[in-house]
Amino acid sequence: MKLWVAREGHDTEVEFEARGDRLWLTIEGRRLEADCRRLWDGEVYSVLIEGRSHEVRVSSPGGRLEVTLDGATIPVEVRHPLEKLLQATGPAARASGRETVVAPMPGLVVALRVRPGDVVAAGQPVVVVEAMKMQNELATRGGGVVTDVLVEERTPVSAGQALVRIAQAGS
Amino acid sequence: MSRRPKIARVRRVLIANRGEIAVRVIRTLRERGITSVAVFSEPDREALHVLLADEAYPIGPGPARESYLNPERVLETARRVKADAVHPGYGFFAENAAFAHTCAEAGLLFIGPPADVIARLGDKLAAREIARRAEVPLIPASPGPLAGVDEAGKAARAIGFPVMLKAAAGGGGKGMRIVSTEAELAAAWELARGEARAAFDDDRIYVERFIERPRHVEAQILADAKGHVAFLGERECSVQRRHQKLLEETPCPAFDPATRSAFADAACRIAKTAGYVGVGTVEFLLDADGHFYFLEVNTRLQVEHPVTEMVTGLDLVAEQIRVAEGDALWFGGDPPPPRGCAIEARILAEDPANHFLPSAGRIDRLRLPQGPGVRNDSGVTQGFQVPVFYDSLLSKLIVWGPDREIARRRLLRALDETVLEGVHHNLVFHRWLAAHPAFASARLSTRFLEEHFTAAALEPSPEAAEVALIAAALHARHERAAVALPAENRGRSPWRWAERGRGPGARR
Fold first, then answer.
1. What pTM, to 2 d.p., does this model score?
2. Which chain B residues in 343-382 lie under 8 Å from chain A, judged by CB atoms?
3. CA nearest B14: which of B98, B99, B97?
4. Domains with residue ranges and CATH for chain B
5. pLDDT at residue B500 above 60?
6. Locate the Lipoyl-binding domain: which residues (chain A) (predicted)?
7. Is there a contact between A67 and B415 if contact means CB atoms under 8 Å apart?
8. CA B139, CA B127: separation in Å to the nearest integer?
9. Residue contact B467–A54, C-beta within 8 A
10. Higher per-residue confidence, A89 vs B278
């Protein structure tokens, strides 16, 4: 899995490689072992990078990522479609009893995992969209019954485009 | 000079203040079995001083003038709840002679010097006159306030440029202007006068010699009502920004025993000449040649008093109460000798990366440092909404060490341990300062920031920047996993801990 992170306009690629419980990442040509635990108070992580211990907070005020460590707050961008997806399918969608899975950024539908009438569990992937060299499994937040599949495989989609509609169980 | 009759022990003390100093006073009151009575403005309902006091009463809305600085509200509350004494803390009414006088009229013991002493020392020219009578060195200055810019020019030429224009009623750096050449004088005169009028409602200005790279050193004194005065050591407070102290330490690294002894004598002579009673601070400037000059007397407990407490073991609030009750100094003429070195860093809600502008907001996370030689005097808690109405001091980090270098390293360690999030603050600034070679070697002056500080000092190190990038990537990966595999989210359930605690491996 690859991600692009940027600070002050400078892009860096981070590649992850998980094996069992262990995780390595490659950044700027160096391969580092990392261990990351989310702490009890929510946005805070204990991060061990090659054993060096860092306590960091990752928050997203107004949708932008900020990393706080050692008392300093550093704005960072992560090029990953997920943040937008979470916003699009977040509380507003759930409040209506219906959920729409949308494309978080322009891409290509590479796989449909559901058909109308399927019952899906919360968190179950429903469609795979390839964007920015990554295949992103887009999952339903709340689960329910698939009412509409609005796209076909191998078709390009634009950011925000509705892909799958789900009626939430019990609504 | 006023003599007070010995009074009964105080039983109920109203603290006419808020924030860390109110908390500080409450602690001593509780240790001494005295009922602590807090007052609070509307936005301070959940403040730490309200939580820790024995009793707490509302005194009005957020703006200080309508609550903490409203003498009628404060005194009416003190009478209604039957307080027998008022502790003013610092700021607000601490150096307000009229308030101290009104307290006395109302039969309330004001825990501070007598009103007439506050009034005399609060006027800078009157204070200089006291210092002159006490034969304490003064910065060469005009004999009194100046009638106009022409007279200021004449005085400045007699003293020699550069000079400083100063408000007679001044304090906190307001109404002060440095004038390097005669050409700058007219403009500076108007600015200083305007500032003085706005800040103190008093536009009397005098002129004194500007000392180029002075250190700010002050004497902690304690005087009883029987005329005994003790010197409790000095504090160096040279690291300042626009005349606001940021870090203080004791002892002064520039003092030798002979200088300290002369300095102590000078401070005590001023206190005796002024008829001082209580804890007080005599401030001096120390020039590059080791000569000190009287600056002013602060007739209150200082923000930086804990460094003195750390090296002497004294509780200065307890001492204030004792002498206000009429007791003689319990240690006679022999105060506890200081031991080691203490440093205080003021943790302020302000943004060093953005012109040190004050910052309000909710404190999302707070974890104060602990361990050997560390003291925190904090006025806030996690979750507290820092109001916009008051000064920006959140907490004071005080460290002690057997010598300055150990104390400095301890300060760095404690700063690294501190977690404070939700408001802008100056922890990164303090870390820069404590690590700076000029600070480490105690090459200090009141121009330290102008000479050494640039915004680049606050830039994250390359290592920190890389950790930030990695952490953001790990976060994004974590979020992705949480959506794809919601089962992992169960780890966030509070019940998991409870279940684990009851598991077969758990021991009680």
1. 0.78
2. 365
3. B99
4. 12-111 (3.40.50.20), 140-209 (3.30.1490.20), 215-458 (3.30.470.20), 462-502 (no CATH)
5. no
6. 92-167
7. no
8. 13
9. yes
10. B278
Amino acid B488: pLDDT: 36
Asked if B478 lies within 8 A of A41 by C-beta distance, the reply is no
What's the CA gap between A24 and A30, in Å, rounded? 10
Asked if the C-beta of B46 comes within 8 angstroms of chain A's C-beta atoms, the answer is: no
Average pLDDT, integer, range B196-200? 83
Query: Which chain B residues contact residue A34 at CB under 8 A?
Result: 470, 474
Pick the CATH number of A2-79 from 3.40.50.720, 3.90.1150.10, 3.30.700.30, 3.40.630.10: 3.30.700.30
**Closest Cα in chain A to B468:** A67
B300 is catalytic: yes
- Per-domain residue ranges of chain A: 2-79, 82-167
C-alpha B416 chain-centroid distance: 22
* pLDDT tens-digit map of B130-157: 999 999 999 988 888 999 999 999 999 9
Q: How far is CA B334 from CA A69, B222, B229, in A?
A: 48, 12, 10
* Chain B residues within an 8 Å CB radius of A142: none
Per the document, the length of chain B is 508
pLDDT at residue B498 greater than cutoff 60: no
Residues 6 or more apart whose Cβ sits within 8 Å of residue A61: none
CA distance B11 to A148: 75
The shortest CB-CB distance from A12 to any of B427, B469, B485 is to: B469
Substitution target in A8, A31, A48, A56 with the highest count of B β-carbons within 10 Å is A56
Mutation for A interface: B415, B474, B479, B485, most A CBs within 10 A: B474
What is the structure's pLDDT at A89?
52
pLDDT at A77: 87
Query: In Å, how far is B452's CA from the nearest CA of chain A?
Result: 20
Test B467 with A72 for CB contact under 8 angstroms: no
Task: Identify all chain A residues contacting B476, using CB atoms and an 8 Å cutoff.
Answer: 3, 78, 80, 82-83
> What mean pLDDT comes out for the span B2-18?
80
Contact A6, B432 (CB under 8 A): no
Distances (CA, A) of B193 to A27, B120, B174: 60, 22, 10
Q: How confident is the model at residue B268, as a pLDDT?
A: 97
Q: Which residues of A touch B464 (CB under 8 A)?
A: 69-70, 72, 74
Please say if the pLDDT value at position B233 is more than 80.
yes
Q: What is the pLDDT of residue A96?
A: 54
What is the pLDDT averaged over residues B167-182?
A: 82
Distance in angstroms (rounded) separating the CA atoms of residues B41 and B18: 9
**A74/B470 Cβ within 8 A:** no
Q: What is the 3-state secondary structure (H, E, C) of chain A?
A: CEEEEEECCEEEEEEEEEECCEEEEEECCEEEEEEEEECCCCCEEEEEECCEEEEEEEECHHHCEEEEECCEEEEEEEECCHHHHHHHCCHHHHHCCEEEEECCCCEEEEEECCCCCCEECCCCEEEEEEECCEEEEEECCCCEEEEEECCCCCCEECCCCEEEEEECCCC
Structure tokens at B277: 């009673």
Question: Which residue in chain A is spatially nearest to B420 when comparing CA positions?
Answer: A71
Nearest CA in chain B to A35: B474
B18, B193, B235, B300: which is the annotated catalytic residue? B300
Chain B residues inside the 8 Å CB shell of A72: 428, 458, 460, 464
Q: B247 CA to chain A: closest CA distance, Å? A: 18
Q: Which amino acid is at A157?
A: V
- How is domain A82-167 classified at the CATH fold level? OB fold (Dihydrolipoamide Acetyltransferase, E2P) (2.40.50)
